[in-house]
């Protein structure tokens, strides 16, 4: 499971971030000042840092410089909106910079994008407790391999790449069956049912009456 350190001195914001991470099946640890964050980083192994800039004791920029050699993916969280601060943070080597207030869905998208860039395979998608490795054509749920047919795999990937969008059966056929599949659209329904069952996505893959399907975040 991906382990993320939340370094944020505002308890309410920190707890909200943690809630969003938990929902998306990330493991998270919280730190509320710079000294505590440094101790946790040096004594533990994290896959990503969410690092506020304005912190008690040691600021976020200084923390990042101290741990940069560890090569931990880092996203700065800050109320500072000036271009100078953003440029400075990125020039230090941070992977991303998000200004508060922000929507949880935006933060999760940035986390997923950053983690994908650091993936050894460079092409891994994460959704809740599901990991899709495109290069190896493997799907894991809670770290366990799940066997999918080629079209089930391609359909799942298409749904995840288009989260929260309504996908018509015709559009799914065009993209997953490459325009040359002339069967009835019922084949989409059958594949959706199998994916729901194999990956326990009954509540996440919504049927949009008269149109198609939508995978909800």
UniProtKB/TrEMBL annotation:
InterPro entries: CheY-like_superfamily, OmpR/PhoB-type_DNA-bd, Sig_transdc_resp-reg_C-effctor, Sig_transdc_resp-reg_receiver, WalR-like, WH-like_DNA-bd_sf. The modification 4-aspartylphosphate is found at residue 52. Residues 122-217 form the OmpR/PhoB-type domain. It comes from the Bacteria. Residues 122-217 bind DNA. Pfam families: Response_reg, Trans_reg_C. Residues 3-115 form the Response regulatory domain. Keywords: DNA-binding, Phosphoprotein, Transcription, Transcription regulation, Two-component regulatory system. SMART domains: REC, Trans_reg_C. PROSITE patterns: OMPR_PHOB, RESPONSE_REGULATORY. May play the central regulatory role in sporulation. It may be an element of the effector pathway responsible for the activation of sporulation genes in response to nutritional stress. Spo0A may act in concert with spo0H (a sigma factor) to control the expression of some genes that are critical to the sporulation process. This is Stage 0 sporulation protein A homolog. It comes from Clostridium neuense. The lineage of its organism: Bacteria, Bacillati, Bacillota, Clostridia, Eubacteriales.
